[in-house]
């Protein structure tokens, strides 16, 4: 099959058929992953980031490659800085629940994610503020979507967990104003939050995890899930290595929790 034939076939399959059936239960998938091995894994498809290229993969091959080693997918749908599109979601959703990742500002964006088969939406507290977060969270829940509510501090994570116990609660190692990254700060914020939130809340470590050792450190600091993009995109064998390491360490991780 030539390139044009393949492009035509995949365009018909993923962009013309409509009626995408989402694989729901994003938060539940994370809970099951955590209960199974002491840490759930969200694999992210991210081809670029502000000011830099990450990696180029055919999305349908990447989805199949990662699916055995992750509990859920995060798919960048933001077009200007992250080279994303909602059209990518149906490629990943048949394999695992998908988090649609964008700078969500309005209900129309949430509707688009739902129409394309997302199981969850990212809502960033530092971007939205509490009042707008509440409105978009309720809209998403009305469409049957879960939410990952992202914060930048353990203190805010505790308040989010109290206000939205059904959501996954993220702490980002990256300062989204300056784009600075600090894994050490992330560990401190995770510890603060984990000591204060209920055991049913899924606490997610976001950004800066680029090794098995850092993933395990995040788990020991209180994360129940890690979201990994760049490391997986650049090292195709990393998802398998992480899964193997988590299986080997699961007794100590579960004891730690």
The structure class reads: alpha/beta
How many domains is the backbone divided into? 1
Radius of gyration: 17 Å
State the fourth-level CATH superfamily.
Aldolase class I
Mean pLDDT: 93
Strand content: 15-25%
What do these coordinates show?
By secondary structure, this protein is α/β, with parallel strands linked by helices. The protein has a single domain (24-256), classed as Alpha-Beta Barrel (TIM Barrel), CATH 3.20.20.70. The chain has eleven helices and ten strands. The chain has helices spanning 3-16, 26-37, 59-66, 89-92, 107-115, 125-142, 154-163, 183-194, 212-221, 230-234, 238-256, and strands at 40-45, 48-49, 52-53, 72-76, 98-101, 120-124, 146-151, 168-172, 203-206, 225-228. It has an eight-stranded parallel β-barrel, surrounded by seven helices. Strands 2-3 form a two-stranded antiparallel ribbon. Helix 2 (26-37) crosses helix 11 (238-256), helix 7 crosses helix 8 and helix 8 (183-194) packs parallel to helix 9. It is globular, with a radius of gyration of 17 Å.
């Amino acid at each position: 099959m030539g390139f044009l034939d393949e492009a035509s076939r995949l365009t018909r399959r993923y962009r013309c058929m409509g009626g995408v059936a989402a694989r729901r239960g994003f938060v539940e998938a994370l809970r099951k992953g955590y209960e199974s091995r002491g840490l759930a894994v969200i694999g992210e498809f991210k081809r670029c980031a502000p000011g830099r290229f990450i990696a180029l993969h055919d999305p349908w091959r990447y989805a199949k490659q990662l699916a055995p080693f992750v509990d859920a997918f995060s798919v960048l749908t933001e077009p200007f800085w992250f080279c994303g599109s909602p059209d990518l979601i149906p490629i990943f959703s048949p394999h695992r629940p998908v988090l649609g990742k964008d700078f969500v500002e309005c209900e129309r964006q949430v509707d688009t994610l739902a129409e394309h088969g997302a199981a969850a939406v990212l809502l960033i507290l530092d971007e939205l503020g509490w009042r707008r977060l509440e409105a978009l969270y309720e809209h998403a829940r009305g469409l049957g979507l879960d939410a990952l509510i992202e914060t930048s501090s353990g203190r805010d994570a505790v308040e989010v967990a109290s206000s939205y116990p059904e959501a996954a609660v993220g702490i980002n190692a990256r300062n989204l104003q300056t784009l600075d990254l600090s894994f050490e700060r992330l560990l401190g914020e995770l510890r603060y939050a984990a000591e204060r939130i209920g055991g049913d809340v899924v606490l997610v470590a976001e950004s800066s995890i680029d090794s098995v050792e850092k993933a395990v450190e995040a788990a020991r600091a209180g994360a129940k899930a890690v979201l990994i993009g760049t490391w997986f995109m650049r090292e195709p064998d990393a998802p398998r290595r992480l899964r193997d390491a988590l299986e080997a360490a699961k007794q100590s991780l579960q004891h730690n929790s």
